[in-house]
Design brief:
Blueprint (H helix, E strand, L loop, with lengths): L2 H8 L3 H12 L9 H13 L3 E8 L2 E8 L8 E6 L21 E3 L2 E3 L3 H20 L8 E6 L21 H8 L6 E4 L7 E5 L1 E10 L14 H22 L9 E8 L11 E10 L5 H18 L6 E8 L2 E2 L5 H14 L5 E4 L5 H6 L3 E4 L13 E2 L3 E5 H19 L21 H4 L11
Parallel strand pairs: 3-6, 3-7, 7-15, 8-14
Antiparallel strand pairs: 1-2, 2-6, 4-5, 5-17, 8-13, 9-11, 9-12, 10-11, 16-17
């Protein structure tokens, strides 16, 4: 580690990180209600002397953005983290302290709702940017700190239409489509301090079966939507291991979750169920496409209908997000690998993060995104969550990760920007000289020419 790197590392403030993380955990911010947490982060950006912005996403929903401007000519870097929590903190079934909106310091652990996923990362970003500033570092490229709304895997469907169900990247999509674009992004989702250049995708399916009205007393319950759905479920469960066996990326296989079922009238059990709805989460690994998996799942349902004409099941997609990734030898990947080795003393594991991430949206905009976060580190293997505790992080991991973020930013934003080092937008491949002629096409002109 050189003298400047050491100066930056020494400027990381553990007390600030712990205090700020606990204060942010204390602010309830379930999906759809992120405003208070965003205003808190906005104030912290202002206190640190950064350009601070509140970006309204919808009523009661904001992104907080802090910018540390560079001197010019360098790569720009975004640190992106969501403010919404996986749980509201009010679920009666979730009594453990890690599900509650009250941070607890238990020795070297911070426990509380959102501590791991991912309020500690939002604070870690700020701590890293402050360390660079306090060390007097002048970077060529801008650093953008983005604390965003609505990342948690939720989607409106049927009667669930409140903003509480409006997640899956609404904040990041709003952020990058309204001007906040950088060359690179570090996404601090929980990885246990492992580098994840790739992440998985997901499709949510809704399957519907219909029955006919019947009355228990008269035995009119043979055409049951629920009984028909039982046969559909059986076919899906038979398909799952086949699907997983055929798809693999670096040892990871896609999971499938038969997640929810609704049908009949619970308040009127004297009537046979007229409609039944099944909801299924199908995951994808890098290399798979949304279109192919949609067609495959719909094919499963079509075969059920062919084998059992009475079922007549229908299927629709109500959420889809593709897998994504960047080269393992890209600049942001290497920056994280090298920074980790400087602080931890050994190279990190390179993994596939199987869950959906907001990187799906940023990579599509040409923002090369690398995922690396704290959570459990080597203290446990559950990425900062387990059923007995809820969410938790280790203070040592919080401090070390902040140092790693600072060194990665120092590496990337001190460089002279070279466009050739940035991966092009995969959807902007322009025809090369000779391609059009080779296809035997006729005269091609621009509209209006």
């Amino acid at each position: 580690m050189d003298e400047l790197q050491q100066k930056v590392v020494d400027a990381v403030d553990e007390d600030f990180l712990v205090k700020t993380t606990m204060e942010l955990v204390d602010i309830p911010s379930p999906t759809g209600y992120e405003e208070n947490a965003a205003r808190y982060m906005h104030a912290k950006y202002e206190e640190a002397g950064f350009e601070a912005h509140l970006q309204k996403v919808a009523e009661g929903r904001y992104n907080a953005v802090g910018i540390s401007p560079g001197t010019g000519g360098g790569y720009s870097l975004m640190f992106n983290g969501h403010l919404d929590t996986s749980y509201s903190g009010e679920e009666p079934e979730l009594t453990q302290p890690g599900y509650k909106n009250k941070a607890i310091r238990d020795g070297d652990w911070i426990i509380g709702n959102g501590a791991a996923n991912m309020k500690s990362a939002d604070v870690s970003y700020l701590g890293a940017a402050k360390a660079l500033q306090d060390a007097g570092v002048k970077l060529k490229g801008d650093i953008v700190l983005a604390s965003v709304a609505g990342e948690i895997e939720k989607n409106r469907i049927d009667q669930y239409q409140d903003v509480l169900y409006d997640g899956y990247g609404v904040g990041t999509r709003h952020l990058i489509s309204h001007g906040y674009l950088t060359d690179f992004c570090i996404l601090g989702e929980p990885t246990g301090m492992q580098v994840a250049p790739w992440h998985g995708g997901t499709i949510w399916f809704k399957v519907i079966t219909r029955g006919s009205m019947g009355h228990t007393c008269y035995g009119h319950y043979t055409a049951s939507a629920i009984e028909r759905m039982e046969r559909v479920q059986a076919a899906i469960r038979k398909w799952i291991p086949e699907y997983r066996e055929r798809n693999e990326f670096l040892g990871e296989r896609p999971h499938v979750n038969v997640a929810a079922i609704e049908g009949g009238w619970p308040y009127r059990c004297a009537r046979s169920p007229i409609e039944c709805r099944l909801y299924v989460d199908v995951r994808l690994v890098p290399g798979q496409t949304i279109q192919d998996v949609q067609a495959e799942f719909k094919g499963v349902i079509e075969r059920v209908n062919e084998e059992h004409p009475d079922i007549g099941a229908k299927v629709e997609v109500f959420s889809s997000h593709p897998p994504s990734g960047i080269p393992v030898d890209s600049l942001p990947s290497l920056a994280m690998i090298n920074a980790h080795e400087e602080i931890v003393g050994e190279k990190p594991n390179i993994i596939v993060k199987t869950s959906y991430l907001d990187a799906a949206h940023m990579n599509r905009y040409g923002v090369q995104t690398i995922t690396y976060g704290l959570a459990g580190r080597t203290f446990n293997a559950d990425y900062g969550w387990n059923a007995d505790i809820g969410e938790h992080i280790h203070v040592d991991a919080l401090v070390d990760t902040t140092k790693i973020f600072a060194l990665a930013a120092l590496d990337l934003c001190a460089r002279e920007r070279e466009e050739t080092a940035i991966a092009p937008d995969p959807y902007a491949n322009l025809p090369q000289p000779g391609q059009i002629e080779a296809l035997g096409s006729g005269r091609i002109t621009a509209l209006g020419s």
